[in-house]
Amino acid sequence: MRFLTARRRHPAARGLVLVFALLVMGALYSAMAPSTKSAADTGTSQQVAEGKALFTVSCASCHGLNGEGQVSGSIQGPPLVGVGAAAVEFQVATGRMPMAHPGPQAEVKPSQFTEDEVLAMAAYVATLGPGPAIPEPEQYDPAGLSEEEIARGGELFRTNCSACHNFEGAGGALPNGKYAPSLFDVSNLHLYTAMLTGPQQMPVFSNGVLTVEDKRAIIGYLNELHEQPNRGGLGLGGLGPVAEGLWAWVAGLGVLVLFAIWIAAKGVKAR
């Protein structure tokens, strides 16, 4: 009588089969994946590395090596995790950052960095946490807006911005030594990113508060307003009838006071 004996598998056979399957899957993925993806990743990684090097030298002393923020004596650097690339581009390209010295507000000055260096730092900070990206030109370019859309932009500006920036965007004083800067000669990109990121004491007008089209309309209104010719005379801060009425009241009241003094003096002499 013959007995059939089953062959026993080697204990490592199952593991070898699994490794072989993984190798086959890896080879298939490498063959089918688009070649351009790796090139794009390399370029982005290089830009981020350059941005990190610049950040470490120029920004980490206030904002921390990893953008976590820190307080050291009079130096108070807020955390940058989640501020996004748009905030970095705005602050650095306008020269507000790095600050020359601690103060109530960062001043506008010539930027210390080239455009490529600014974009590299923005790309690095964007890796620290999700935040607003640098907008595309079609988001902030007001070309093609209708007169109705520009008029709506004026309404939005007067409702949301004029309390600090003045009716024509000339700027104004704020408490504790701060101020709302003038919006004259500000690029459309930075008008947009200021609304998007809310620098310093300015509130954040996210796309959920003011849509992309709302922001374009406001930019279009400011562009048209600032292109108006200067017809001379005193601008009075662009406050219109408010300032004019104040001066009319002061001058008119002053004339009445002088007239009353003259009448009183004549009455005394007549006696």
TrEMBL record:
It comes from the Bacteria. Residues 46-129, 148-226 form the Cytochrome c domain. Pfam families: Cytochrom_C, Cytochrome_CBB3. It catalyses: a quinol + 2 Fe(III)-[cytochrome c](out) = a quinone + 2 Fe(II)-[cytochrome c](out) + 2 H(+)(out). InterPro entries: bc1_cytC-su, Cyt_c-like_dom, Cyt_c-like_dom_sf, Cytochrome_c_Oxidase_Subunit. The keyword Transmembrane helix applies. Its EC number is 7.1.1.8. Keywords: Cell membrane, Electron transport, Heme, Iron, Membrane, Metal-binding, Repeat, Respiratory chain, Translocase, Transmembrane, Transmembrane helix, Transport. It is found in: Cell membrane. The chain crosses the membrane at residues 246-265. It is a multi-pass membrane protein. The cytochrome bc1 complex is composed of a cytochrome b (QcrB), the Rieske iron-sulfur protein (QcrA) and a diheme cytochrome c (QcrC) subunit. This is Cytochrome bc1 complex cytochrome c subunit. It comes from Microlunatus aurantiacus.
